[in-house]
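In practice, a research group might receive sequence data for several interacting partners and want a quick structural hypothesis before committing to experiments. The following worked case mirrors that situation: the sequences arrive first, and a predicted assembly follows.
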Amino acid sequence: MKVARVIPCLDVTDGRVVKGTNFVDLRDAGDPVELAARYDLEGADELVFLDITASSDNRETTIDMVHRVADEVYIPFTVGGGIRTLEDARQMLRAGADKVSVNTAAVQRPQLISEISAEFGVQCVVCAIDAKRRAPTTDAGAVGEWTVGDGWEVYLHGGRTPTGIDAVQWAQDAVRHGAGEILLTSMDRDGTREGFDLELTRAIGEAVSVPVIASGGVGTIDHLVEGVAEGGADAVLAASIFHFREHTVAEAKERMADAGIAIRPVVHDG
Amino acid sequence: MPFVSRVVVESLRRRVCCDPARYLIVNERPLVAVLDYGIGNLHSAQKALERRGADARLTSDPGLIADADGVVLPGVGAFGACMDALREVGLEAPVHVAVESGRPFLGICVGMQMLFTKSEEDEQAAGLDVIPGTVKWIPVGPKIPQMQWNLLDLEKPDDPMLQDLGDDPYVYFVHSLHGVPDESEVVAATVEYGVTLNAAFRLDNVFAVQFHPEKSSTPGLRLLSNFVTVCRVPND
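A structural hypothesis for the assembly, expressed as tokens:
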């Protein structure tokens, strides 16, 4: 039985959670440990911490944060952002992260994935892929006629740098190199609140054997339902709808269960 | 007062009734050796056991392991690499001593797999052969690895380790292989994932789980509590 996972994503900088800290009753809403514990209580299946500054200056702070989260919160969590070398990954995993997510550095040097998975196992390596639908291109043979470009292209640096690499192809390569999971973000949908790019989610999910986490564009709980029911995602990731308390993870799971999706029910008895 | 299951309390009473003096030496904060052989991150397992009342130590010291009230063998990554690492730090013999001592022993994930005779993941690597059987690839499934929470189906609901896990004991799995014992009676719990996979095993004092209790929120912490509880019972 596939049991869909719901994963809140927390942006951190200098070991503090930034954005979306509208939990009214927290003592310190920027404290990653307190937020993580709260999400655990609400039924979050995993957490993703994304280090959005990820400069080498604050690496120690991030490692310390990972340590504290691992000591206090007993659900799996992934750390991403600025993992460029095997040593970066090693530091995060030794500090207690269950997985690291790699993005730009892995596209530039796919062996990074093999190196981490060889040392820690494929289950530790999440390959984050930022994909954008290929822009319509002119057909050189028929001036003035537009054809829709095929597929999706991998972008780096938060969607600013095109690579020319096909996203489906890269997902397959990443798995061949030893990625145990794909965290797929639609750059067309990210921040729009219009829902996942379901076609993209399906295309990647059908192309690889490992689980796919859908990300980018969630604005409502129904979008999470669609991601699994129509996009075939194994897990759905969202940031703002949870952080700004528009919805709780528990509500999301209830709606998913109502839609016939197998989920882990929220345990209330703590 | 830490959580104590009724079954465990009963078994504890049975063991101490003949010698009431022994009740006094029940260790409220049992020493649990979490075997550290340089593989993966062990902080969560150690912290969770501490949180549940154990004096949990990460160690590769045979002396400390011999003194411990209970032993935990964690593991993550590849079967062959874990076996190599365990042997390199000289922990193979202490594991056998601990198992044979009758003290509570808990294997987690690849630590569970290492207790088997061998694994299809690495045909060259010999396992610890505590649980006779083979670790086999998951034959089919929605996705491999199974990387998700799944609902335990308890084959041994009376086992002290499986007490009070709640109505829906969902626990967190990350694995591509699962243990297939020669004797199916040792299977303590299963999950459905395309096929039925073995998720927990009981052989005398040895309990072993494919999932990660230290990453399984409430039910996982309950299971670790149960382990601490059985470690409190004095050993012969």
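Before designing any experiment, note the following. Residues 141 and 194 of chain B are 4 Å apart (CA to CA). The two ends of chain B are 25 Å apart (CA to CA).
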